[in-house]
Amino acid sequence: xxxxxxxxxxxxxxxxxxxxxxxxxxxxxxxxxxxxxxxxxxxxxxxxxxxxxxxxxxxxxxxxxxxxxxxxxxxxxxxxxxxxxxxxxxxxxxxxxxxxxxxxxxxxxxxxxxxxxxxxxxxxxxxxxxxxxxxxxxxxxxxxxxxxxxxxxxxxxxxxxxxxxxxxxxxxxxxxxxxxxxxxxxxxxxxxxxxxxxxxxxxxxxxxxxxxxxxxxxxxxxxxxxxxxxx
Length: 231
Prior knowledge:
The protein is an all-alpha fold. The protein contains 10 helices and 2 strands. Strands 1-2 form a two-stranded antiparallel ribbon. Helix 3 (40-56) packs across helix 4 (63-80) and helix 4 (63-80) packs antiparallel against helix 5. Mean pLDDT is 77; it is low at 148-162.
């Protein structure tokens, strides 16, 4: 590890400790923004590596997809970090970033045929990057492919607030059933199948016991939401 990276992780570890011990919501948001800013270059490097890896397999996955997933999992790592736990913040982030890359690939994974390697194909990801410019001018004329296809999108701030509200509700549910809430929390973050089983620490694969746990967690959470709405 280079000296620059060592300094980065020492600094971010300190922020993570402060974040974990902070109780004020607004103060936590300020720390979160500082962590995101400090990790910007590192995430950029991870994104470039992930995009290049996909390209070596003949697949074009927009860098925005990897970036948003890394940002999401960085926030998740902050939420999960325990200063008194056995794992450092660096270890947690790097492990979850591996999940992030895998999950980004999985969202494009579709059934293939006998001509595809291992019987699967990533054909749905074979498109031009969404940040490709389609206009030659400045400002409004300098649109991207995403502008044309997606139109107006939810801002990063709105997305963060929505996600934050979602997690607050799940944290309320944790007071009712912490184990079920842990499953729901990872499901909300996009985990599924074997990855969900491993991430929650419940199993090594999506076996029958894990599937039953997911079913019970979903039923309990649904009941909790109904009761919560009635108050």
